[in-house]
């Protein structure tokens, strides 16, 4: 491959030299053009030619009069990228080419904002993340550094914000979930453009789980106090609480979901039995039934 | 760099270019210096690089044959729409462009916290040949800095942003 490349380069150099002898036309292009802005290309020589603007993101062709400025109005070339301008004279002389860049307008028009997770427990460190890519009005990624502000606000806590400078069009942040459960609003903003996501902060694992036991006929009625997490948020209904009764090596286990914040079950009344309660990784109190 | 290709040399350029087109591009992957908290696993990095390089083959085929369907495997979103738009413009004008990638110097720069996008910068060298109704107009070797964003699809990473920016 290496030899092929060297030979090709040599052929291209020879070709360029031959072309230089044959051509009288020349082309002057701007170094960079802002996407969507008008621009001008200057040609020298005389007669007619075709001018091609060629890149992976866009292609244009114009019939032009050599020796005149060729004006491209606004919105002609709007996709950022690297372009070749190729002038092909109608006289049949060799084509002339120049290259130039089209860059994104430095004016944010669209944010691609991903935030997550959509639901998480309260009090988690750096658990809410957001990342944003900033685009101009033609969906070109703005690679020049820009300020993006991220703000997380919830009804029960003061808003928290971060200013982040984009690198190659991207910015990200991570924030703690708040101590109180509820819906948080996560906003990314660049220039006048903003994008909003909702993050649901729910209670954490049960904390200080406590139950009480009362006789009910020939059985025991076992009921938890209202179950809360360590920040005092009510644990969601449906969370499973497990009650276990042990006596002489025998074990009886009953699972019950929280309903209106408490879990309640009936268990056999056995003198000398021990009853315990747990939920997830949280262990509660134990009661020994002696009556 | 500016280059014009007079008729006597065009055939030679085409023949020699064909030998380059058949060869694999030289690929260098710079050590990872990522923004973001997420760890990039080696397997993920390999998959991203593999899929990105295959995307260049799709560009070459699609713009060389004016077939937008050849973009579908490797591109999605704005990148796909813009490249497909170029294919449509080329077909309307009777133009074809042959992109042959010669080398890639890749740096992965951002991995999103949830793993839903990855951004890389490619200092690429490639050759562009332009044809108007099968008449060779120009051949030029290009050095360009591409900023690329890929997102995971079912089977592979697809290119969502594919954009050259001036060399910094």
Relevant terms:
heterodimer; A: 291 residues; mainly beta; Immunoglobulin-like; 3 domains; 5-stranded mixed sheet; 1 helix; 25 strands; disordered N terminus; B: 168 residues; alpha+beta; Nuclear Transport Factor 2, Chain: A; 3 helices; globular
Summarize the structure.
Chain A is 7% helix and 55% strand. Chain A is mainly beta and 291 residues long. Chain B has a single domain (7-12, 25-165), classed as Nuclear Transport Factor 2, Chain: A.
Describe the structure.
The complex is a heterodimer of chains A (291) and B (168). With 291 residues, chain A is mostly beta strands. Chain A folds into 3 domains: 2-103, Sandwich (Immunoglobulin-like); 110-202, Immunoglobulin-like (Sandwich); 206-289, Immunoglobulins (Immunoglobulin-like, Sandwich). In chain A, 7% of the residues lie in helices and 55% in strands. Chain A is built from 1 helix and 25 strands. Chain A starts with a helix and ends with a strand. By secondary structure, chain B is an alpha+beta fold. Chain B has a single domain (7-12, 25-165), classed as Nuclear Transport Factor 2, Chain: A, CATH 3.10.450.240. In chain B, strands 1-2-3-4-5 form a 5-stranded mixed beta sheet. In chain B, strand 3 and strand 4 form a beta hairpin. Mean pLDDT of chain B is 88; it is low at 1-21. The chains are: A mainly beta (291), B alpha+beta (168). The interface between A and B is large, with 61 and 63 residues.
């Amino acid at each position: 491959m290496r030899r092929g490349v060297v030979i090709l380069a040599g052929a291209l150099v020879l070709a360029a030299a031959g072309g230089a002898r044959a051509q009288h036309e020349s082309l002057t292009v701007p170094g960079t053009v802002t996407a969507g802005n008008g621009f001008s290309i200057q040609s020298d020589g005389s007669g007619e030619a075709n001018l091609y603007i060629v890149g992976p993101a866009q292609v244009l062709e114009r019939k032009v009069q050599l020796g005149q400025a060729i004006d491209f109005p606004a919105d002609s070339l709007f996709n950022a990228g690297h372009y070749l301008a190729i002038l092909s004279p109608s006289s049949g002389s060799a084509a002339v080419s120049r290259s130039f860049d089209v860059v994104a307008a430095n004016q944010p028009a669209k944010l691609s904002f991903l935030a997550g997770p959509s639901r998480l427990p309260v009090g988690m460190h750096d658990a809410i993340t957001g990342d944003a890519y900033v685009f101009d009005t033609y969906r070109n990624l703005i690679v020049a550094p820009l300020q993006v502000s991220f703000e997380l606000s919830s009804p029960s806590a003061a808003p928290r914000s971060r200013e982040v400078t984009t690198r190659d069009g991207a910015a990200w942040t991570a924030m703690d979930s708040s101590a109180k459960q509820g819906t948080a609003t996560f906003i990314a903003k660049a220039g006048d453009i903003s994008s909003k996501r909702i993050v649901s902060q729910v209670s954490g694992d049960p904390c200080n789980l406590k139950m009480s036991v009362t006789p009910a006929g020939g059985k025991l009625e076992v009921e938890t106090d209202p179950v809360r997490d360590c920040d005092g948020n009510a644990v969601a209904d449906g969370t499973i609480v497990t009650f276990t009764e042990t006596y002489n090596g025998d074990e009886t286990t009953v699972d019950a979901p929280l309903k209106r914040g408490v879990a309640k079950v009936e268990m056999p009344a056995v003198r000398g039995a021990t009853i315990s309660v747990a939920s997830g990784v949280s262990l509660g109190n134990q009661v020994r039934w002696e009556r | 760099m500016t280059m014009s290709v007079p008729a006597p040399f065009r055939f030679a350029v085409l023949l020699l270019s064909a030998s380059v087109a058949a060869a694999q591009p030289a690929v260098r992957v710079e050590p990872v210096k990522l923004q973001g908290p997420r760890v990039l696993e080696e397997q993920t990095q390999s998959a991203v690089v593999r899929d990105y390089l295959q995307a260049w083959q799709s560009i070459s085929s699609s713009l060389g044959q004016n077939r937008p369907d050849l973009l579908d495997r490797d591109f999605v979103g704005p990148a796909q729409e813009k490249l497909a738009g170029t294919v449509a413009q080329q077909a309307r004008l009777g133009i074809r462009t042959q992109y042959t990638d010669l080398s890639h110097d890749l740096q992965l720069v951002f991995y999103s916290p949830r793993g839903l996008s990855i951004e890389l910068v490619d200092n690429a060298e490639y050759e562009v040949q332009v044809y108007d109704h099968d008449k060779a107009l120009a051949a030029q070797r290009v050095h360009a800095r591409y900023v690329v964003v890929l997102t995971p699809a079912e089977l592979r990473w697809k290119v969502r942003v594919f954009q050259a920016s001036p060399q910094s």
